[in-house]
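New here. Your pick:
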Amino acid sequence: MAPINKAIADLESREAGDNFSIRGIAKKYGISHLTLSQRWNHQTGPRAARYAAQQLLSPQ
């Protein structure tokens, strides 16, 4: 599992009302806090999903 996916799983496992830091979790998994924040807030997605949306021909 990629570090970004592990970090998102860590965020999803937390209970409502838990105190946590996006920067702290990003540092724990060795990823950019900006990338984690954007992914967590659904502002960006994985590159593969972006490429699939732009693909004009169907995959063979």
Notes: The chain has a mean pLDDT of 84.
